[in-house]
Amino acid sequence: MFSLVGLILLGLILALDIIALIALLKSGADGETKTLWVLLIVLLPVIGMILYVVIGPRRQAARTALRLLVGFLAALEFWSLFAVPYERAVAPAAEFLLRLGESPAVTRLEAPGREFLVNRTDFPPAAPHPGLPSADLHFNFVLLASLFALHPHPWKTDRVARFLIATLCLYLVHVVFLVFEVESVYATRMGDWSAAHYGAAARNFWAAGFHFYQIAGRFAAPFAIWWLLGRAESAGPPENPRGPRRRKKKRA
Fold it and tell me: What would the pLDDT profile of 184-204 be if each residue is shown by its tens digit?
């Protein structure tokens, strides 16, 4: 398993590579040049991205990478300061969804800081309460904020509104996948109790959903939300510096 720092760096490199590929495909380079740069960036993500920023066919990529880096650092600081209050907002929503499917409702989720504690009123008094690392769930907020920082004017009212809507969407993703993680614990890590209360199909469903988020979903979610809400007008067609061309009048 990657450490949290490793996951954040991996996400940043992935974001930079995607931005470099988008800028490359929208550049005026010929097909052969684009193909060579795509292969270089895909096969050597770090070196290829750096070379593209420095000597690539579109110099605007350097400014884009700088905005992404500044946004990443600002988002990382914000996330580290407000992670615990955020977890205390996620836990009750996930607990509500979990208890909807229980009869009687027994699950309690606590967020003391840096983890979610899973408690059930039917646990024996001496039974340990599973602890789930919380940062693995929501560190991708940093990636989402970094992507929104790509816009030349991210502080404009409409951009801020889009970012807040995107953050709300990501919050809902975190709530849903916390439910998957807790259900996965119930279905696969409680020994005989799991076998007695969850069938094979239910165990596979909850475990597959949780592992999908761990492997791909936590990176895919911020990119998908940004693609839908934040990317639309960030890179328009280049303007003609000479102004609009006048049509020549045909001689009669």
Answer: 999 998 888 888 889 999 999
Mean pLDDT value across residues 15-22: 78
Virtual torsion, Cα 56, 60, 65, 71, nearest 10 deg: -170
According to DSSP, residue 149 is labeled T
* CA nearest to 226, candidates 15, 44, 20, 13: 15
pLDDT higher at 6 or 137 = 137
Determine the Cα–Cα distance for residues 216 and 211; give it in Å rounded to an integer. Answer: 8
* Sequence-separated contacts (24+) of 125-132 with Cβ below 8 Å: 130/185, 130/189, 132/178, 132/181, 132/182, 132/185
Other Cβ atoms within 10 Å of 234 Cβ, number: 17
Residues 6 or more apart in contact with residue 164 via CB below 8 angstroms: none
Q: pLDDT value at position 193?
A: 82
Task: Provide CB contacts within 8 A for 158, sequence distance 6+.
Answer: none
Alpha helices, DSSP H, located in 101-149: 135-138, 141-148
Q: 195-226 burial string, b = 16+ CB within 10 Å, else e?
A: eeebeeeebebbbebbeebbeebbbebbbebb
- The Cβ-side half-sphere exposure at 168, using a 13 Å CA radius, reads 7
Could you write out the DSSP letters of every residue in 150-179? TSS-TTSHHHHHHHHHHHHHHHHHHHHHHH
